[in-house]
Amino acid sequence: MGYWSATLARSLLGRRPELICEPAIWEDGVAELARRTLGGHRESGAFLLGEKGSPRRIHRFVYYDDIDPNALDTGIVLINGRLLGDLWKICREEKLEVVADVHVHPGCYRQSASDKANPIIPEADHLALILPNFAEGSNLPGAIGVHRYLGNRRWRDESERWFPPFHMGWYAWL
Ligand SMILES: [Zn+2]
Questions:
Q1: CB distance 108 to 134 below 8 Å
Q2: Which of 91, 125, 142, 164 has the fewest CB atoms within 10 Å, counting from its CB?
Q3: How far is the CA of 147 from the centre of ligand 1 (A)?
Q4: Whether residue 174 has pLDDT greater than 50
Q5: Cis, bond preceding 55 (omega within 30 deg of 0)
Q6: pTM, to two decimals
Q7: Ligand 1 mean position, distance from CA 1 (Å)
Protein backbone atom coordinates (compact mmCIF):
# COMPACT_ATOMS: atom_id res chain seq x y z
CA MET A 1 0.00 0.00 0.00
CA GLY A 2 1.14 3.57 -0.64
CA TYR A 3 1.45 5.96 2.28
CA TRP A 4 -1.90 7.57 1.67
CA SER A 5 -3.96 4.46 1.09
CA ALA A 6 -2.43 2.81 4.17
CA THR A 7 -3.23 5.89 6.23
CA LEU A 8 -6.77 6.07 4.92
CA ALA A 9 -7.45 2.37 5.50
CA ARG A 10 -6.10 2.57 9.02
CA SER A 11 -8.19 5.61 9.84
CA LEU A 12 -11.38 4.12 8.46
CA LEU A 13 -10.86 0.87 10.31
CA GLY A 14 -9.63 2.48 13.52
CA ARG A 15 -6.30 0.62 13.43
CA ARG A 16 -4.22 3.17 15.23
CA PRO A 17 -0.47 2.65 14.80
CA GLU A 18 1.80 2.61 17.83
CA LEU A 19 4.91 3.88 16.10
CA ILE A 20 5.11 6.28 13.17
CA CYS A 21 7.85 7.92 11.12
CA GLU A 22 7.88 10.52 8.38
CA PRO A 23 9.03 8.99 5.08
CA ALA A 24 11.95 11.43 4.66
CA ILE A 25 13.41 10.62 8.10
CA TRP A 26 12.94 6.89 7.53
CA GLU A 27 14.43 6.88 4.04
CA ASP A 28 17.52 8.85 5.10
CA GLY A 29 18.07 6.67 8.16
CA VAL A 30 17.66 3.43 6.25
CA ALA A 31 20.05 4.60 3.52
CA GLU A 32 22.65 5.38 6.17
CA LEU A 33 22.16 1.94 7.79
CA ALA A 34 22.70 0.31 4.38
CA ARG A 35 25.87 2.38 3.89
CA ARG A 36 27.19 1.26 7.28
CA THR A 37 26.96 -2.43 6.30
CA LEU A 38 30.01 -1.66 4.12
CA GLY A 39 28.48 -3.20 1.04
CA GLY A 40 26.77 -6.07 2.86
CA HIS A 41 29.74 -7.17 4.96
CA ARG A 42 28.22 -6.70 8.40
CA GLU A 43 25.01 -5.81 10.20
CA SER A 44 24.30 -2.25 11.27
CA GLY A 45 21.70 -0.70 13.52
CA ALA A 46 20.36 2.33 15.30
CA PHE A 47 18.43 3.52 18.29
CA LEU A 48 15.29 5.31 17.12
CA LEU A 49 14.76 8.45 19.16
CA GLY A 50 11.55 10.36 19.35
CA GLU A 51 8.58 11.29 21.45
CA LYS A 52 6.68 8.81 23.52
CA GLY A 53 3.02 9.35 23.02
CA SER A 54 0.21 7.72 21.21
CA PRO A 55 1.51 7.02 18.66
CA ARG A 56 5.24 7.19 19.39
CA ARG A 57 6.95 9.31 16.76
CA ILE A 58 10.47 8.68 15.42
CA HIS A 59 12.55 11.88 15.01
CA ARG A 60 16.06 10.61 14.47
CA PHE A 61 18.38 7.64 14.14
CA VAL A 62 21.39 7.30 16.47
CA TYR A 63 23.66 4.67 14.93
CA TYR A 64 25.07 1.96 17.16
CA ASP A 65 28.62 2.44 15.91
CA ASP A 66 28.47 6.15 16.80
CA ILE A 67 27.72 5.19 20.42
CA ASP A 68 29.99 2.13 20.63
CA PRO A 69 32.69 2.24 17.90
CA ASN A 70 33.13 -1.55 18.14
CA ALA A 71 29.42 -2.41 18.00
CA LEU A 72 29.61 -3.81 14.45
CA ASP A 73 33.03 -5.45 14.55
CA THR A 74 31.89 -9.05 14.89
CA GLY A 75 29.47 -8.81 11.95
CA ILE A 76 26.42 -8.92 14.21
CA VAL A 77 25.32 -6.05 16.39
CA LEU A 78 26.72 -6.15 19.94
CA ILE A 79 26.61 -3.00 22.04
CA ASN A 80 28.65 -2.46 25.17
CA GLY A 81 26.09 -1.24 27.68
CA ARG A 82 28.76 0.73 29.53
CA LEU A 83 29.09 3.07 26.55
CA LEU A 84 25.47 4.20 26.52
CA GLY A 85 26.27 7.48 28.31
CA ASP A 86 26.45 9.37 25.01
CA LEU A 87 23.03 8.06 24.04
CA TRP A 88 21.42 9.23 27.28
CA LYS A 89 23.14 12.60 26.85
CA ILE A 90 21.55 13.05 23.40
CA CYS A 91 18.19 12.07 24.85
CA ARG A 92 18.53 14.59 27.67
CA GLU A 93 19.75 17.44 25.49
CA GLU A 94 17.17 16.96 22.75
CA LYS A 95 14.36 15.92 25.10
CA LEU A 96 13.87 12.66 23.23
CA GLU A 97 13.47 9.04 24.28
CA VAL A 98 14.34 5.73 22.66
CA VAL A 99 11.01 4.79 21.08
CA ALA A 100 12.21 1.71 19.12
CA ASP A 101 15.33 0.18 17.60
CA VAL A 102 16.24 -1.07 14.16
CA HIS A 103 18.96 -3.27 12.75
CA VAL A 104 19.88 -4.77 9.42
CA HIS A 105 20.10 -8.50 8.65
CA PRO A 106 21.91 -10.23 5.79
CA GLY A 107 18.87 -12.40 5.04
CA CYS A 108 15.37 -12.56 6.45
CA TYR A 109 13.75 -10.31 9.02
CA ARG A 110 13.19 -12.98 11.68
CA GLN A 111 15.00 -12.52 14.97
CA SER A 112 18.17 -14.47 15.64
CA ALA A 113 18.69 -16.29 18.94
CA SER A 114 21.02 -13.44 19.91
CA ASP A 115 18.35 -10.82 19.09
CA LYS A 116 15.85 -12.63 21.29
CA ALA A 117 18.27 -13.04 24.15
CA ASN A 118 19.53 -9.45 24.09
CA PRO A 119 16.71 -6.92 23.80
CA ILE A 120 18.19 -3.47 23.20
CA ILE A 121 15.57 -1.90 25.45
CA PRO A 122 14.08 -4.58 27.73
CA GLU A 123 10.74 -2.87 28.29
CA ALA A 124 7.39 -4.49 27.54
CA ASP A 125 5.90 -3.27 24.25
CA HIS A 126 9.23 -1.99 22.96
CA LEU A 127 9.35 -2.57 19.19
CA ALA A 128 12.49 -3.93 17.50
CA LEU A 129 12.52 -3.50 13.72
CA ILE A 130 14.65 -5.64 11.38
CA LEU A 131 15.48 -4.69 7.79
CA PRO A 132 16.18 -7.76 5.61
CA ASN A 133 18.76 -8.20 2.83
CA PHE A 134 21.15 -5.55 4.15
CA ALA A 135 18.39 -2.95 3.67
CA GLU A 136 18.77 -3.17 -0.10
CA GLY A 137 15.12 -3.97 -0.88
CA SER A 138 11.86 -2.45 0.33
CA ASN A 139 12.17 -1.20 3.89
CA LEU A 140 8.55 -0.25 4.41
CA PRO A 141 6.17 -1.77 6.96
CA GLY A 142 4.93 -5.07 5.52
CA ALA A 143 8.39 -5.94 4.17
CA ILE A 144 10.37 -5.62 7.41
CA GLY A 145 10.47 -7.32 10.78
CA VAL A 146 8.37 -5.82 13.58
CA HIS A 147 9.00 -7.61 16.86
CA ARG A 148 7.30 -6.75 20.12
CA TYR A 149 9.08 -7.40 23.40
CA LEU A 150 6.77 -9.00 25.94
CA GLY A 151 9.20 -9.22 28.85
CA ASN A 152 11.11 -12.20 30.25
CA ARG A 153 12.94 -12.65 26.93
CA ARG A 154 9.68 -13.39 25.14
CA TRP A 155 8.73 -11.70 21.88
CA ARG A 156 5.82 -11.58 19.48
CA ASP A 157 6.40 -11.33 15.74
CA GLU A 158 3.93 -8.76 14.36
CA SER A 159 5.66 -8.30 11.00
CA GLU A 160 2.94 -9.83 8.89
CA ARG A 161 -0.09 -8.24 10.45
CA TRP A 162 -2.33 -6.51 7.95
CA PHE A 163 -1.78 -3.35 10.01
CA PRO A 164 1.62 -3.66 11.67
CA PRO A 165 2.12 -1.45 14.75
CA PHE A 166 4.72 0.54 12.78
CA HIS A 167 3.29 2.93 10.22
CA MET A 168 5.00 5.15 7.70
CA GLY A 169 3.83 8.68 7.21
CA TRP A 170 0.99 10.82 8.32
CA TYR A 171 -1.68 9.49 10.62
CA ALA A 172 -4.80 11.02 12.12
CA TRP A 173 -8.24 9.96 13.12
CA LEU A 174 -10.81 10.84 10.50
ZN1 LIG B 1 19.49 -9.57 14.40
A1: no
A2: 125
A3: 11
A4: no
A5: yes
A6: 0.91
A7: 26
For residue 14, report the distance from its CA to the centre of ligand 1, in Å: 32
Which residues form the domain of 86? 3-168
Q: Residue 116 Cα, ligand 1 centroid: separation in angstroms?
A: 8
Residue 27: C-alpha distances to residues 23, 32, 154, 158 (Å): 6, 9, 30, 21
Q: Would 130 be classed as within a structural domain?
A: yes
pLDDT in tens, 75-110: 989 999 899 999 999 999 999 999 999 999 999 999
Query: Which DSSP category does 126 fall into?
Result: -
CA–CA distance, 73 with 69 (Å, rounded to integer): 8
Determine the distance separating the centroid of ligand 1 and the alpha carbon of 96, expressed in angstroms.
25
Q: How far is the CA of 32 from the centre of ligand 1 (A)?
A: 17
Domain tally for the chain? 1
